[in-house]
Write a structure and sequence with these properties.
By secondary structure, the protein is α+β, with helices and mostly antiparallel strands. The protein contains 5 helices and 7 strands, in the order αβββββαββααα. It folds into 2 domains: about 120 residues, no CATH class; about 40 residues, no CATH class. InterPro entries: YceD (IPR003772).
């Protein structure tokens, strides 16, 4: 959509929505992401004449194939994320506003950028799942640990057995 078309809307909000199934030309910023499966978005766009920017409020739904960061298995990650952002047509020193360079506003590209920005660094479906046993160890509660610790002999007793007393030398 051209900037001029957006500016013509004035104060009246307008809807943008699309469902993407072809992703040629879109960048994937995470090494864990293998490919996008589907992306759809539905948003309401407001043009702010005073600031010469657009404000977008909507939702993005996406599905992608990724590698689980914990176990390396291929997973399908699906999520719905909010899309609440501002995009300016003029260069501003404001960290909360994204700059749109050029005359065309490509909402599909903006959506892919939002997804890339919201992908967790360690994408996994195994959140908080801890293996309860391993090679020579097991997961136990603090009470079990304390009881086990109290049942083990003090290693200092073993060292004491190795110690030779003067009386022991005379007996031999």
């Amino acid at each position: 959509m051209l900037k001029q078309e957006i500016r013509k809307h004035g104060k009246e909000p307008f809807e943008v929505s699309n469902e993407l199934t072809k992703f040629d030309g879109f960048e994937i910023h995470s090494p864990l992401i293998k490919k996008y499966n589907t992306v759809s978005y539905d948003a309401e766009v407001f043009y702010d004449k005073n600031e010469d920017e657009i404000i977008v409020h909507g939702t993005i739904n996406y599905s992608l194939d990724a590698i689980d960061a914990r176990d390396g298995e291929l997973i399908v990650h699906e999520e719905e994320i909010p899309w609440d952002d501002a995009y300016s047509f003029v260069n501003k020193n404001n960290d909360d506003v994204n700059i749109i360079d050029g005359e065309n506003v490509d909402f599909d590209t903006l959506v892919i950028e939002q997804i890339n920005a919201n992908i967790p660094m360690n994408l996994t479906h195994n959140h908080d799942i801890i293996s309860k046993a391993g090679s020579g160890w097991s997961l136990m509660s603090e009470e079990e640990y304390e009881a086990n610790k109290n049942n083990q002999p003090d290693p200092r007793w073993d060292k004491l057995k190795e110690f030779k007393f003067k009386d022991d030398k005379n007996k031999n």
